Each structure stands twice: as C-alpha cells, then as structure tokens.
Amino acid sequence: MARLFDEHLARRVTDLSGTWKFSTDPEDLGERDGWNVSLPAGETVAVPSCWNNESGLLSYEGAAWYEKKFYTAGGCLRFCFGAVMTEATVWLDGSLLGRHYGGFSQFDFIVPKVKEGYHTLTVRADNRFDAQSIPQKSVDWYHYGGITRGVSVETLVGISVLSYRLEYELSNDLSDVEGHFAVECYNADETGKTAPLSISLGDTCVYQGEITVSGRKTVCVTLPSFQLQNVQLWNVGAPKLYDVYIKTDTDDLFDRVGFRKVEVKNGKILLNHKPVEMRGVNRHEEHPDFGMAFPLGRMKHDLDLIEDLGCNAIRGSHYPNSQEFVDYMDERGILFWSEIPIWGCGFSVDALADPVVVERGLEMHREMVKYYYNHPSVIFWGMHNEITSNNEAAYEMSKLYYNYLKENGGNRLVVYASHQPMTDICLEYSDVICLNLYYGWYGWYSDALSSWEDALNNFCKHRDELGLSDKPIIMSEFGAAALYGFHDAERPKWSEEYQAELLSHCLQVFHTHPAMVGSFIWQFCDIRTCSEMGFSRARGFNNKGIMNENRRPKAAYYAVRDRYRAFAEEDRT
Ligand code: ADA
Asked: 233, 460, 471, 543 - which has most CB atoms within 10 Å?
C-alpha cells in the first residue's frame, strides 16, 4: 500500500488509483440489477476520494458503486485497499471477493488464478449507520463515504511475504537488542513449496533459512531469535531507523523499524529511560476539499506546521491514520497515539454491550495492531474515546481491549480518553490517565480559568483514593472554539483572543502540575462536522482548531507555539 518508500522490488505492484466509473445507488438496487457485473451508467471520478466532494453529493449517505477496468499479465493477484468508508463489498469480474467493515483500515483479497487480459474490479461502498455501527451516527466529524485511500493489485509468485512483525527486547542499558521476526507467508502455487527466506536488519543478516508453505495457503511462522549489539535508539527528534528487507526466491518486502522502550514508572512516561512530556495536538485526517482522502503533500504540510508549533506528539483522533502519515512520524521522531473510532458520546450503554459492536471494535484493534505494529512512533494504542465509562458494559469492553492490546500490541502503552473521570470505573485499564475536559468552554463546566487547577487537584485526590497514584495524567483534549477572523478586545467566547488566552493558560497549568505529563490541544485545525452536532457547530464545522480548515493560523496558533517552544527549550537545558 501507499508508503513513503517502495515496499517491493521483486513483486509487481500496479497502482489502481486514478479514474474509476462511479454511480450512487440511493434505492439500493445495484446488487439486484447486477451492477457487480457491469455498472450501467455513471460518471468518471478520481480514486482515492470522498464522494461528498463531488457536486451535489455533499450530504449523500447510502451506497455507491465504483468500477475499474485493468489489465493483468495473469497469475495470483492480491487486491489491496487502503480504506473504504465504511462497509465495502468487492467483486472481480462479477464474482464476490469479500466484504470488509470499518472505514479506516486496510484489507486485501487474494485470487489465485486470474487469466491474462482485461478484468473488472467493482466496489460497493456504503456509509450508512445503524445501531451496531462504529462509529455511531452521532459523531463529531463529517459522514464521508468513498474509496478514501489507495487501491493496488499485486502479483504474487511462489512464496510471498504478506506481513511481518519484529518483536524485540532491549537490554537493561538499552544498548543491545534480542529479537525475532514473525512472518506471514502465502504460497501462490497449487502444490506445497519450500523456498529460501532471508531477513536483513540494517547491515546485518539476522535470518537465513527456508520456509515451507502448502499450496495456496497462508502460514505465520515465528523465526529463531537474533541479537544485535550497540544499536542506536529511536528517539523523539532523533529517530534512528533501520531498514528491514525480507526476501524469498520470488518475492520481497521492505520496511523500516526503530528500537525504543516506553514505560510508565513513578508517575512518569519514560522513553528510553528518560521522562518525556508530550506536547501534542489532536488531528483529524480531514480537509474540506478532500474529505478523508487526505493527499500526501498535505500530510507533509500539516506535519511542518505541527513541528513549527514545537509539538513532539500527535493524537490521531479518532481512527487509524494513513500509513504514509505514520511513516512520516517515524522518520521525523514524533510520538503518535493511534486509536479506533469508538467515539463515545454516540454510544448508548446498550451499544457498548452489543456483542456485534464489541467484536467489530476488537477486529478494528486487530487490524490496527497488524498494520501499525512495526512503527516505532506509535507509543499509545487508544481503545476508545469518551464512552460512558461508569457502567459494567464499558468496564467489560475496556478490560477485553486492554488485555488484547497488552498481549499483542508490543512495547506500547494502552490508553483511552475519559470525559467523566470522577465516576469512571475503568481507569485501571489505562496505563496513563487521559482526560478530556472543557473548563472555560461548555456550559456544564465552570467558565473561570482558575477552575482548571481545582479540577486537577480534585481529580488527583480521587485518583490517589483509587490507589492509582502511579498513573501519570495527560490532558488529552481541552480547548475553545474561535471563528477565524473574529477579533474582539473584550475576549468573548468564539473570539480568537479568548481561545488563545484559554489555551495559553491551560498549557502553563498542565506543564507545572506535578501529576501531568502532557497535553493534546483540541484541535489542530477546524474540521467539517455532521448535522447531529447541532447548532453548537457554527458553519457546520467544529471550530476549536488553532487554525482554520485551510490551515490559516488563528491567534491561538502563536500562543500555543510560544508555550510549546518554551517547554521544548526547557527540555533541552
Ligand atoms: C470531545 C470529542 C471530540 C470533540 C470535542 C468537542 O472531547 O472527543 O471529538 O467532539 O469533544 O469539540 O467538543
């Protein structure tokens, strides 16, 4: 899939991004009328894209069909999708390949014997919501639909490497690595086959052997362990990456990894044994011109702005971001919080207890772990955001996800964002306590800026009474809306001045509070949101960005930059 580097030299990969035939299906008649065999009418659109950015389709919710003709020299083909919002059904030449639920994760289908010639790939995307959707219909971002990330077709020959994970431990002094690779391989031949398999890590060959896979089967093999001495660590701002190259006689996979250790000790987050303060923003992968089909060039631009702010961390609110974006974090040495789109306020207690919802969420965690495991920048797995965490269903869900991520997620902290910390019964299942609080903004909080200190101190008392005093605290969301260009010397709410003052005040309070280890401003820039959010969202946008949706800075941008840069300077001295 789309990365910042080529993943394959030996494997043939054809990018299917570009022009596709497209038709909406508001009556849901496509399957009945055989659109999977041939899409009757339609216009030509670009993929990846969101259909909401096409004329007349801004608020279209329903099914839509995409069709692409492509040529192949034939063989065993793997169709790879970066993301389809939200439910995808895929056909090749009219035959069903499969379905995928969830708008923010990769998926693929392998078809063993495809003849040379022209073929038709058809996708039905559906962005409707029901009681078991993740997220639910009431969510604070726009209900986009479409093939939002890249599509490619790969030709698999002999034994190929579908995925891998590098599991490792660092020695106590962090200088040496003991690790092993686990590889997922597929054999495209009809009969069983043994092939050479080698893995290099940086300049060192860490495995050389053979692998045997039955015909047209996938296996996952854990390889013997290796040692590497005197490794350079991946660190914030100093991100050493090592190349990984996995090869069979007919296939290959290239990637990059980094070695670092993250842990919580004595109320601090330690990265490579040193306390780290997270200076972050919450960022949606959204732009009103592109929706959630966010272009690579704009990703770099966002990151340039985030670095200019003095940030060292980003929360990918509220779903797994594109792999390319996370590649950028790896190579820039920025810490990343990756989460799934269980966005609480929309979820009733019944939905949280619904086995279909719970399983869908678990599957999203499995996919997130599978695709992002080897990224050193990902130091937090986020289980959910602002669910009603004061009831049994939330407790059971948190326990299940926490245990899954702790067992399978590698050296990372597992967290969630809580908006009702005084009644939250799940806090034991968050390695760092992450609070979403809006003092100074929403009516159910005090407006006095001085209330932040009291709120924090009260919560710390509560945390200590729960016996959780070792857990550090992060302010994972706080902020105020400001309309870009609205200035007023009286600093009323919605003015740029009020937002700047509130954020500046909060950052200083958090930075000097002994229990706090970081902050994530809500939010990086204004985003389009959905009508369910009602009149509190002027222009149909969540306006709490420190920039507007076109990335034009508000006064808060400079106020935050002053604070974050000063904190960064303190870090250096
Ligand atoms: C919540 C939520 C965000 C956003 C924010 C707000 O904390 O997690 O997605 O909706 O509130 O702007 O109110």
From this structure: 543
